[in-house]
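Q&A log
Question type: sequence-to-structure
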Amino acid sequence: MILHTDWRNIPASARNTVAALGNFDGVHRGHVHLLDTLRMARPDHPLSVVTFDPHPRTLFRPQDPPFRLMLPDVRAAALGEQGVDHVFQIPFDAEFSHLSAEQFVNDVLVNGLGVAHVACGADFAFGHRRTGNIERLETLLAPHGIGLTIVPQLSDEGGPISSSRIRRLLQEGYPERAAQELGRPWSITGPVMHGDQRGRLLGFPTANIPLTQHVEPARGVYAARVTLPDGRVIAGVANIGRRPTINDGQESRLEVHLFDFNEDLYGQTLSVALIALLREEKRFSGLDELKTQIAADAAQARAILGV
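Response status: OK
Response body:
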């Protein structure tokens, strides 16, 4: 997979692709369905994705709390794992947001990227103030000999699979159900930062990872699996929240204790997959009660993860 972040300077080798359009936050089963449909419809061209960073919602609603299921580099890697040859990650800024529907098609898709065919969902909207819909897209592409495939949303017993639905499941404390929608456990990826060493004092040293732009799932304690940069996967127990017993700060954080592990992780990028919510966040009477509960949490996580 090759990542392109400047749509105005695309090499000739990246042109003439069949392109799926969308934000692809989470690269969930619905997104994979879209990619598979496009691949089967046009197997004669390399497969690409046209997406955006930051997410348009970040520009238009900056007051909203973080909501991303995955960060851009993780998204690009996930798309590569699905067989995507080129990811066109378009910088979504104020200037780009003012492109008309016609400019988006002519300047970006036709002249900039030189796509051969396009696919998207039925609700795809584009152009300034989202004035373009799929009917307009088809009309604008046709003079250039570029076809359009509209792919219906993939649904299950709960309805259409979507990024917003997966976010709600995580915020409500159902990582197992979110994993079913995603096709894999949901992960938070980020660098290990220095903390206050409280976990070490409690007998459970933790790796501290900022949530940054990730959606904040339900606060509490989770059974987790941690993927290290070298590919090893280590079972552990994670806490997401504000640690009310020992810290009344306003910033939620992810702390994860890796079982049977004693290596320096500072500065390394970890991927922490949340497997099951063990309990919600709560305040304890003191450190002794907290330490007892952490030991119980660790034992329950070990049982769930089979370690």
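Response note: The domain at 185-305 is CATH 2.40.30.30 (Elongation Factor Tu (Ef-tu); domain 3).
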